[in-house]
C-alpha cells in the first residue's frame, strides 16, 4: 500500500519510522511519504491560510497550495484502477470505525490531507472529488488542533490490518470491535499478584468453558460501558 500525507508538519510523521509500521516500511509492505504543504506555496512567507469570506474567527487554509499538492500526488487518473482514496480528517466527518479501517486496508493508495486552523476551503474537497474518492473522517466527538494526530491514529489502525504487518494475524481476530463487542480481560503470570488472583477458570484447561467465560465477559463489559454497540434488545 502507498500512503501519502499532506501536512504543514511533515516532521510529525517521523514516528512512523519505529515500531510495527516502521518494520512494514522497511520490508516494503507500506510505502509512506509526508509532503510539506508549504512546498506548494509561491510567496516569500509560504502562506497557507487566509481570512474567511463572510467573516468569523480564525483562518481558513487556501485552496491553491492544496490543489498543487494533490495534483502532484494524484497525477493522471488511471481508469483501470479503483484509484486513490483521499481522506481529510475533520470533526465534521463520518466516524472512523474498525469497519472503515478494514475497508481502507484493502486499498492500494491512501492520501491524507491534514487541515489546520478553521479548516480547508470547501472547494478543495469538491475539486478533489472530481478525480478521486474523497472522505471526511472524524476520530470522535471532540476537537483537535489539526488533522495530524487523527491521521497518525488512522494510519496505525489501517496499517496493522494489512497482511504481513502484524506478525500473528490471529491476534487481530480477538480484539475489541472485531466481533462488534469489547474484548475480554487478559491475564498473564504470576497467578497471584499483590494478592489478586487470576480467575480460576483460566487455569482449568477447559477450553470450551474458557471461551464461554470470555464471551460472557465481553457481553458484560460492552453492556456496562458501550451499550450503544449492542443490537436493540
Ligand atoms: N481534526 C480536528 N478534530 C478532529 C477530529 N475529532 N477528528 C478528525 N480530525 C480532526
TrEMBL record:
CDD domains: TrmD-like. It is found in: Cytoplasm. Keywords: Cytoplasm, Methyltransferase, S-adenosyl-L-methionine, Transferase, tRNA processing. Residues 1-230 form the tRNA methyltransferase TRMD/TRM10-type domain. Its main location: cytoplasm. Its EC number is 2.1.1.228. It holds the Pfam family tRNA_m1G_MT. InterPro entries: Alpha/beta_knot_MTases, tRNA_m1G_MeTrfase_C_sf, tRNA_m1G_MeTrfase_TrmD, tRNA_m1G_MTases_N, tRNA_MeTrfase_TRMD/TRM10. It catalyses: guanosine(37) in tRNA + S-adenosyl-L-methionine = N(1)-methylguanosine(37) in tRNA + S-adenosyl-L-homocysteine + H(+). S-adenosyl-L-methionine binds at residues 115, 139-144. Belongs to the RNA methyltransferase TrmD family. Homodimer. Specifically methylates guanosine-37 in various tRNAs. PANTHER family: TRNA (GUANINE-N(1)-)-METHYLTRANSFERASE (PTHR46417). This is tRNA (guanine-N(1)-)-methyltransferase. It comes from Herbiconiux moechotypicola.
